[in-house]
Design brief:
Length: 129
């Protein structure tokens, strides 16, 4: 399974930087998902939205690397994208303009505010984050 986090991030940054005009006039930007990275699942886990199986939670908490492309790494990334979509679907009823980009930015900012005692994020050596 392929995740295009960097391509999506580039599109989102262009869109935001140019306010959706000129070089940022990207069609179907609302079809982008949250970005399948390492920080969002950490936040989703802290919020109780993502729950890891005990053996996976143990590996992540011990900071044991997960192999790039392994079932566990792909499941974390896929669950992150799906959780972001479910959040978007829930929020759009209150704010129809909400996109996955808004959800992603909010989750990312939350990840930057976490204290030092927070559970760690999963470790995967890859160029795709």
């Amino acid at each position: 399974m392929a995740f295009y986090k960097r391509a999506q991030l580039t599109a989102a940054m262009l869109y935001e930087a140019f306010g959706g005009e000129g070089p940022g006039d990207l069609r179907r930007v609302e079809q982008l998902t949250v970005f399948a990275d390492y920080k969002l699942p950490q936040v989703l886990r802290r919020l109780g939205i993502l729950h890891y199986a005990p053996h996976l939670a143990d590996r992540v908490d011990r900071r044991e690397p997960l192999e790039a492309g392994s079932r566990e790494e792909i499941e974390i990334r896929a669950a992150t994208v799906w959780a972001g979509e479910l959040m978007r679907q829930t929020l759009v009823s209150r704010s129809p303009q909400i996109t996955a980009l808004h959800v992603d930015y909010w989750l990312w900012r939350e990840g930057q505010r976490q204290g030092p005692d927070i559970q760690p994020y999963h470790r995967t050596r890859t160029i795709y984050y």
